[in-house]
Amino acid sequence: MSVLNMFHKHPELNTASILLVETERQHQDKLAEAILAAQRSFNVNVHLADSLPLPTRNEANRPRIDLVVFIVNHFSSRSLELTKSYLQHLDVMYFLGRLCFLVNDARSAKSDPDKLHAVREMAAKYSSPLLFTELQTEQGLATAADRLLVFTKVSAGFVPGVSSLFLNTLTSCSHPMESSSNTLVDTD
Amino acid sequence: MEYTVAKFLQKTLNKIPVSGLRRILEEWDFLSPAQLRSLDSAKYGPALRLKVLALCEENHVQTKHVIELDMIYNHAYSTKRNWSVFQFYEQQELTYTMKVTEFVEQFTANLKQLTSHVSVVIKQFEDDALLIRVAWGDNFKRPNHFFPTYAVYHPHSPYVFISHLGIKQRPLLLQALLIAAKYTDIKEIQLKGRCLKSLRDLVMRHFKPIPCPKASQEISASHPNITNEHAKHQAYLKLVADDAFGEGTLPLLETAVFKLETKFKDPVNRILENKTDPFRCVIKFSSPNLLESLKSSVELGIVNGALSPLLTSISLKARNHFVIKERMPTNAPGP
């Protein structure tokens, strides 16, 4: 089973690489452009994929991936199931702070709270951050790009004294509450 | 204003959305420009409609004016109705060129001869389409203007698009159409939809997918720092989708219905294996834009491999409704 490995390649000078994985390819193009347009002090390479494992023919040219972002479509359960199956193809080292989940448009009226709950559970299980974004607007794209760049900067080692595992303890997603949030319990 | 006329006018006005109301009133040309300008002050939908009703009453509106308004609305918003397609066969005189006035006269005369209590209005619009409106009545009732039948006929094509035709009135309307258009036979083809333009494109085969072999072009990324890991695979999928459905915008269809009359085959459970009767079931695919969603399901890789030929043949055969019988040794599923 081919696995995406963290430390099998040398890092490049002042360059970081992000991998955006999305099963339905809706937002990854715009997000990639927003990341490259954002203010930063280092070079960024963005790789787009719709599934893991990545094709082996690109193996030689691919740089070391510093951050893996899974964009989960919480409107469909298929997206969530596929994402869980892709996690098997990641090296263990990625789970220590170099992995991030992203959910778009969680405020929409069409969103199902159960599916959102399931995504949160998955993020909490792998103790990775879960970002809620609004990629439909320009401002939302810029904000999401900035947040991802903060993770990338730490994970590529450009911030002295801060490691990705350290940042992960602050940003990882917590388990959602066990009881349903709809019922109000009256306690005296 | 008579009660029936008022009710009819009110119902018709309520159907027209406020955003298109100005344009339709201008096309109707029943209210004077001064009256139309006085409508500018009312911005709120129901208030605007009340004002229009009052102005129409001033101008002494009658049923025939409201019928014209109804026809203009149905021509502009024809996507609100479900249209079925009928095809003419065997033109009687091959060199006959249709004159619109002749068609109108013959059609109205024939229909009135068949049943006397109908109201028939025919109007020609810019894109060479004849909109025929028939309101049906019988010996005890006046023509019912609230549920008319609409038919759209393009004089130089053998197709008619009909909506809201009852079973009892079918033979009457079809016979009148046959005599007026000078054909011998008319049949319903198994195609139904909402968008008239798409139906017309499908039957006239304007968009037929031409399978031309071309090398798969990889979609180049917009920025040199962005690389697509699956570029080759995505280009291949796009090629498969384009081959099956053709490039460019696809016609707008809402449903595809498959009526199965085949035997039930289940190698795992073997429950209904011994029954000799076919297992009848109906499969319905519906979507705001069916062909586009089928094409993108291939492009995004949701479907593994190519789509079943039953689905790709929707655009090739220009049909929505299929009946699939048991496969005989000689012929393919149909008709």
UniProtKB/TrEMBL annotation, chain A:
Protein keywords: Centromere, Chromosome, Nucleus
Signal peptide from the UniProt entry: none
GO cellular component: a single term: nucleus
Principal subcellular localization: nucleus
S-adenosyl-L-methionine listed as a keyword: no
Entry-linked Pfam families: CENP-M
Keyword set includes Nucleotide-binding: no
Gene3D superfamilies linked to this entry: P-loop containing nucleotide triphosphate hydrolases
InterPro entries tied to this protein: Centromere_Cenp-M, P-loop_NTPase
Compartmental location: Chromosome, Centromere; Nucleus
Protein's recorded name: Centromere protein M
Gene: CENPM
TrEMBL record, chain B:
Alphabetical UniProt keywords: Centromere, Chromosome, Nucleus
Localization per record: Chromosome, Centromere; Nucleus
Principal subcellular localization: nucleus
Sequence intervals crossing the membrane: none
GO cellular component, one term: chromosome, centromeric region
Coiled coil: none
Biological processes, Gene Ontology terms: CENP-A containing chromatin assembly; chromosome segregation
Pfam families with a match to the protein in the record: CENP-N
Protein name per Swiss-Prot or TrEMBL: Centromere protein N
Species this protein is from: Erpetoichthys calabaricus
Gene: cenpn
